[in-house]
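Crash report, auto-generated. Payload:
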Amino acid sequence: MKSLDELKKLRDESLKNMEMRDTGKEIRVVVGMATCGIAAGARPVLSSLVEEVAKRNLKNVQVVQTGCIGMCIYEPIVEVYAPDKEKVTYVHIDEEKAKRIIAEHIVNGNVVNEYTIGAVEK
Amino acid sequence: MAIFRSHVLICGGTGCTSSKSDQIKKRFEEKVKEVNLENEIQIVSTGCFGLCEEGPIVIVYPEGSFYSRMTIDRVDEIVDEHLVKGRIVKKYLYEDGSKDDKLKSLGEVDFYKKQLRVALRNCGVIDPENINEYIARDGYMALGKVLTEMTPEEVIKLVKDSGLKGRGGAGFSTGMKWSFAAPNKADQKYVICNADEGDPGAFMDRSVLEGDPHAVLEAMAIAGYAIGATKGFIYVRAEYPIAVHRLEIAIGQAKELGLLGKNIFGSGFDFDLEIRLGAGAFVCGEETALMQSIEGKRGMSRNKPPFPANKGLWGKPTIINNVETLANIPQIINNGADWFRSFGTEKSAGTKVFALGGKINNTGLVEVPMGTTLREVIYDIGGGCPNGKAFKAVQTGGPSGGCLTADHLDTPIDYDNLIALGSMMGSGGMIVMDEDNCMVDIARFFLDFTVDESCGKCTPCREGTKRMLEILDKITEGKATMEDLDKLESLARNIKETSLCGLGQTAPNPVLSTMKYFRDEYEAHVKDHRCPSGVCQALLSYVITMNCKGCTKCARLCPVGAIEGKVKELHTIDQSKCIKCGACMDACSFNAIIKK
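Recovered output after restart:
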């Protein structure tokens, strides 16, 4: 180790993988991962959400999986919970859409209306 | 670096490993591979989570689900349900006695609520065999800061100001110790980490070494810089194979990254470390004996002065710090002296780790701010005595400490309070006793230990403790007189005052404190030839009461044929033949046999 900066760089890099173990995060992004969700392609969606959160170093966001949400026809489903805000349910999500949700909704605070269940049901 | 979506943390401390956590980890790895998730799920072996009673412990992140008492056959279900489908397997989660529902996550567990983890901050959080995880938690930042921004004098002043005292037992100011060694001129100075944890029932240092070995290495390098030493030794007992193994890995990784070795952080400071294995002699936890042992000589203590800070290892200035003391150092450097002083009491700053054992519901490892009361540790964290038995005493400080009673439960724990009550902080063993424990027997147990472990160099300790043990034997056999009690007490005081080292000076403490607080029990043994708790075998007799139905079960079981009686008639025990094994009492279906 030659300098403190070198150590700091290594720390920040290592930290990305450790963030997961902090359970005090306020924003939760939940992916339906029951048989229906997995069959519809929820696995790559979950992975891309995790990667995107890590890449952008979003410390307050937790990506978790859950069981069957009950609307199997709309899988893969991603739900976003944030404090004092209404839950947002996104449906028919794929990897690209997942990245957009992180960028627009989580980072900039703008719900991606066209992916929400309300928009799709119309 | 690969990003995983879920982490499975499995306790790899000695406690959980002895209940097969290594095989549980292996099964997790196999099963995760079977379902093709090996690139999404990270499986990590960590240090001790503290709640050893409920081990093996497995925690799944990001949810923080706390699975307790894991078994190998539960692994498949957890992988299939939780990791594949996202459904937490609630039936296997840890159940807090005080709540109706099973707990979801770590933060909800009562056991952790009153705890404050400073020395144990990384235990159960990081993979101790992966230096990157330590670095992610600000590891080696303190060393970097010290080497690039501070002078040795500033480091010593900071440690002094923090009020950190030695956690090994004596409670001497760590900063002072360093300041004694720093000005001494020598061609070589040494830093020693005392990891010769020997108190029966104590496992704090082992857990730190197993769960966070890099914290100790980092602190030793900082100490080296502060006093001008370039060489360090970790003296650890060979009975801690997991700790030794992880230390070896940690030293290797630190050297590879250049965090140990030559010219660290380009500052020109060199520091190298070696492990020395002890053979498990208790006296080698005493610093002068420890140094003898490192030098390859027989572990025996010597007179002080000269103190190690002036003439230590191979006659060179040396500082010796305990594992837990060192584990606090990097955080003091990173967060400052005021931060550290904000925990604990005026005279005892910071936190203390205790190994909670004996008659207690939550056996395990706890860390609390100094000044927490015994009641909080034993009841709020420890969950009290099992099976509704009454609390009788708590033994702190191992063979050097003493027993405290129910009257002392509201005493805030710090160095001075415990000494004032005739016990001591010690290294942090805390053994809880309930109404079924005989205090004379407890004192005898600890003395038996010190008699075995005395190095034999000085007469008071070698001969005196042996004579004390003989008197205690007489008491537990009901053969002692009241004069023997007086003799025991004066002998104890003499040994305390005249022994060469800490071992002998503190060995009589368990006897003196039990005599002080439980004199009635001693007198019952002597005057009435009775053991009030029903422990001392020689003073017991088994008797069959009128509840006997004459089933003959006990008579058939008795290994010495001491029980006579016809079918459907009251049986009797021949006391001259009875060896008091208790087999009859355990076997009786009618509770007709009692101990008197």
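Post-recovery validation: The beta strands of chain A are 27-32, 61-66, 78-81, 88-90.
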